[in-house]
Amino acid sequence: MCGIIGINSNKPVSSTIINSLKKLEYRGYDSAGIATLYDGLIDEVKSEGRVNNLEKNSLVQSMKGTIGIGHVRWATHGLPNSINAHPHSSQYVSVVHNGIIENSTLLKKFLISKGHNFKSQTDTEVIVHLITENLKTENIVNSIKKTLKSLQGSFALGIVFKDQPDLIVGARRGSPLAVGYGPNENYLGSDSYALKSMTNKITYLNDGEFCIIKKDHVEFFDEDGVKVNKKVLELSSEEKSYDKGDYKHFMAKEIEEQPTTLKNGIKEYIDNSNNDINIYNFPWKTNEINAITLIGCGTAYHSCLMAKYWFEELTSLDVSIDIASEFRYRKNRFKKNSLYVFVSQSGETADTYAALDLCNQNNMKTCSIVNVIESSIARDSKFVLPIHCGTEIGVASTKAFLGQMLILYIFALKIGLLRKDIIKEKFTEKIKDLKTLPKLVEQTLLTDNKIQTISTTFNEAKGSMFLGRGFSYPIALEGALKLKELSYIHAEGYPAGEMKHGPLALIEEGMPVVILAPRDSYYKKTISNMQEVIARGAKVLLITNKSKDEVISENIWEKVEVESTNDDLLPFLLTIPLQKLAYYSALKKGYDIDKPRNLAKSVTVE
Ligand code: F6R
Fold this sequence. Notes:
It is built from 20 helices and 27 strands.
């Protein structure tokens, strides 16, 4: 999704801005632009498509400005072309914007009546003209304050002014924004990943705040323009150099990293010598909690659905799950004894953040399970359980999904033990099994060749289905999501038992159907459902776990076997062939695997 970079320096900034924009590419975007200030003039260059196109432009290469802003745009209002790309500028001011201005139509009418001319179809351009209008009567701070108060919706902004050669303004409401500090230069960024290549000293703006970035210092203001003091945080530098290595794509690397990332997660939470789980400083007593609501979007929602099965199995809590974009607008019955858990890789997903904010406003107990620990969701939750799986760049979430499931499983086990819902012996047994999981994932990753061949059939089909029951149902949804987002093939995930109630009508001769049927307590039922689709002509790819008992069916098209373990952990292993199926299918189609069309890594608009 959109990304912002701003640099105020003594040296020309265009090449550093371009390099930082490249760091933001993983978020998903369709155009890019840059504006620098030189000799009292704003130079602006924009282009459709990748940052490379912008970089190649000779105007960018000759930019001399030592202060500037850059942007990658994921279109919301207006086509993804160079006119709608940011920055948007008037004669006096240039603006980059992440988010959506909801009252832009009304503001535009007002500004046109004041004589302003609009060049683009974007909502952002109203901000440019509002600031220009307010600057007629106000100083910089007051014009920004007044402009921000007129805007409805969400935004992170970077602004430079024609006659202010040592000043970038940053402002945020709803969309994340950070300031970075360097030697004789300071930075603005929508994402700490982009700033990390320049500095590890960062300050995050809170909602409603704005800042003035000069070369040698930064001032922060609240929404009323009153100065505020902010802390400078030191980020760990361990992930500075995260790259693809010898892999063709980040996604391929991230799939293969899963044994290591699971090992890291286990190391952080499992006390090896006592076979116990360490969760320090949990702020509530477990007897103060009798219900849990798990909230997320997309893949993170699938890990919530998975966790519902585990929490119901291992604890006596009432468990509900919710899609964040639905939860935030419903009339929720907030319950004092409920724990609200927000699951997110990026920690910046706008809907998940809004759901968290709503719970905080209602004084609920809030906890987040996130990968990016400096993120807004992590910062604003009352308790955080980090995933510890390292930077994830591929837009399609892989290692973060397994990481989220790992932490949710660990959390369910610990709560179950503390509430005495499971006995110590059972708990210890499960911890011992959990410690073997990274090795089992490593072995399951070897199913590679078979999946490569199978993926061709999926590419040739009109559509496909992914079916599972119980613990395998969330994984069926995740498998279908991965295939559709990467290879643009229609794929539906369904509970296998629901087929007769409608979707069975979709099955026709030769349609590829993935059946997830590990030998757990649902196995026999799922195999019956498999026979029903085979009888109607489906080409069934059965994914099960290794066993000495053969599957009794003559008409299975292909079979892939994952390693065997206890029922709780099988979902981790079933996920692996599905990630690979989506990867190889997109690879054969020649699609942009790390940046699928229309999608973004960090979904900062609702
Ligand atoms: C799919 C995918 C998305 C994200 C969703 C939430 O592969 O990655 O569905 O899971 O956009 O993102 P986070 O986890 O950052 O809140």
